[in-house]
Design goal:
0% strand; 108 residues; elongated; mainly alpha
Length: 108
């Protein structure tokens, strides 16, 4: 199936320019995510995360979490922080969940 672009007959009269659509467009633009924001982390962490993703594919975040878990139970704090950083870069939700679990285990 081919997709064809057809410009509107009269500029400014498309549904995107209607007064009702403007607030929805503004909200959509305000709610967009920017992965490279102020909490993006270091360039080194990003490169390491991309390398890890290249090696492990879609299971890379789970693999990094597993490495963080091994480092946690081995008592290697720097390795734990490194692997949690990679996990956080690849999947923030998985990293947050893992940190809650590890914090709970650490306090008990």
């Amino acid at each position: 199936m081919s997709i064809r672009f057809a410009a509107p007959n009269s500029p400014g009269r498309t549904s995107l320019c209607s007064p009702a659509a403007r607030p929805m467009i503004r909200r959509a633009i305000q709610n967009t995510a920017n992965d490279n924001g102020e909490n993006a982390g270091s360039e080194e962490m990003l490169r390491a995360s991309l390398r890890h993703f290249a090696q492990h594919g879609l299971g890379a975040a789970r693999s990094a979490r597993s490495e963080a878990e091994k480092a946690f139970f081995a008592g290697d704090r720097s390795a734990y922080d490194w692997w949690m950083g990679i996990t956080r870069t690849l999947d923030r939700r998985l990293a947050a969940n893992a940190e809650q679990i590890f914090t709970a285990k650490d306090s008990s």
